[in-house]
């Protein structure tokens, strides 16, 4: 494996030394260069930079807008160089603005060697230089809501159940940490434990400990619930998501992430791991507006277009907006639609039972079963326009 060239920039010499010591513990070989400079002046020195990864220390405050403008100039001159910044600011707005300026990773100002190592491995994986892919087998599917009420949680939970019914081993992580209720769609009782319990014992993390804290929906479907107390969600960090997904993808065929609508450092980290992100919309103008904003954010995060799929939930063929209307408005092709069938969906949600188990003959259950079958590469049981479109897409993915 070739060495990675790392350049560190900070206005504080002691910080430069500290970051250098943290990088010294990395699992891969690194060539590290240190440069004493403020982030705001870095644009003027862009021509002097030559590295695979640039680590910029913004921990001492200053003008963040000027620093990001400077980094954008650096990124334009060195488009193949990945940028990591260290900052005390971790708001969603700052993270998105940073990503739009070409920053790949935002780490806390006190990041340790393990955090640097994980970030470097994520960047290396995106650029095809990772040495840590052999242990992974499961696929990660993330569900994001383009607007509140899209039905993303309903689809995530019910697709998970449909996959398990067809023989896949499935885990679902409810990462809507303040308002997550995925367990209610699959059970009439509360989950006894949650992701917060796993994080509190993260030093014990192994397959047995993870499963002990999950709700068993069926023999092949486990769910890790969001905490009942929203305050406990604040204790969950992006590095915990790294550890959980590294373990889960070794033991499950599919790991489904319900990330809700809010994008922050934790949910962005989760989306980084996803093989496919299903952005859920409905056929109305408010959802179209939300979809366009979310697609713009995903573009800023440099997610490849093949990673993103718009899913139109509660779709009616005779509705005011057609698929062509939605495609024209959002600027992307739509390959996935799930039909409206309020009776079956409401009955399943109210009883805490998957719709494929409660009303297997309903249009929505058939659609979900077809979706699961397409993901698993199975032939459709019957001719279906929706399924044929998705099946062709699935075959394309398999060749990619």
From TrEMBL:
InterPro entries attached to this UniProt entry: AAA_dom, CheY-like_superfamily, P-loop_NTPase, ParA/MinD_ATPase, Sig_transdc_resp-reg_receiver
Keywords: ATP-binding, Nucleotide-binding, Phosphoprotein
Domain Response regulatory, chain residue ranges per copy: 5-124
Modified residues (4-aspartylphosphate): 57
Transit peptide among keywords: no
Residues of the signal peptide: none
One Pfam short name: AAA_31
Keyword ATP-binding: yes
PANTHER family: SEPTUM SITE-DETERMINING PROTEIN MIND HOMOLOG, CHLOROPLASTIC, SEPTUM SITE-DETERMINING PROTEIN MIND HOMOLOG, CHLOROPLASTIC-RELATED
Protein name (Swiss-Prot/TrEMBL): AAA family ATPase
Organism of this sequence: Noviherbaspirillum album
């Amino acid at each position: 494996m070739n060495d990675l060239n790392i350049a560190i920039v900070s206005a504080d010499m002691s910080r430069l030394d500290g970051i250098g010591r943290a990088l010294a513990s990395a699992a891969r070989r690194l060539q590290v260069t240190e440069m004493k400079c403020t982030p705001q002046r870095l644009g003027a020195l862009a021509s002097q930079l030559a590295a695979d990864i640039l680590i910029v220390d913004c921990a001492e405050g200053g003008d963040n807008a000027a620093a990001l403008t400077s980094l954008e100039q650096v990124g334009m001159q060195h488009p193949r160089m990945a940028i990591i910044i260290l900052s005390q600011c971790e708001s969603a707005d700052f993270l998105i603005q940073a990503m739009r300026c070409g920053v790949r990773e935002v780490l806390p100002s006190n990041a340790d060697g393990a955090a640097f190592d994980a970030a470097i491995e994520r960047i290396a994986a995106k650029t095809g230089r990772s040495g840590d892919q052999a242990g992974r087998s499961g696929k990660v599917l993330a569900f994001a809501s383009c607007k509140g009420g899209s039905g993303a949680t309903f689809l995530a939970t019910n697709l998970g159940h449909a996959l398990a019914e067809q023989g896949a081993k499935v885990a679902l992580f409810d990462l809507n940490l303040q308002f997550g209720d995925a367990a209610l769609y699959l059970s009439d009782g509360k989950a006894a434990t949650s992701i917060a319990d796993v994080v509190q014992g993260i030093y014990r993390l192994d397959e047995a400990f993870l499963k002990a804290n999950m709700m068993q929906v069926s023999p092949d479907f486990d769910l890790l619930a969001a905490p009942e107390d929203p305050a406990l969600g604040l204790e969950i960090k992006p590095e915990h998501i790294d550890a959980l997904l590294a373990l889960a993808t070794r033991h499950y065929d599919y790991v489904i992430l319900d990330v809700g609508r809010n994008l922050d450092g934790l949910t962005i980290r989760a989306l980084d791991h996803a093989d496919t992100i299903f952005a859920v919309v409905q056929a109305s103008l408010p959802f179209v507006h939300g979809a366009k904003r979310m697609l713009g954010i995903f573009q800023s995060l440099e997610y490849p277009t093949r990673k993103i799929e718009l899913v139109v939930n509660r779709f009616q063929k005779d509705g005011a907006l057609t698929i062509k209307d939605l495609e024209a408005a959002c600027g992307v092709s739509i390959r996935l639609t799930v039909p409206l069938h309020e009776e079956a969906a409401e009955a399943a949600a109210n009883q805490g039972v998957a719709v494929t188990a409660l009303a297997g003959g309903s249009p929505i259950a058939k659609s979900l079963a077809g979706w699961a079958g397409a993901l698993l590469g199975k032939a459709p049981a019957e001719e279906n326009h929706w399924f044929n479109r998705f099946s062709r897409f699935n075959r394309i993915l398999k060749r990619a």
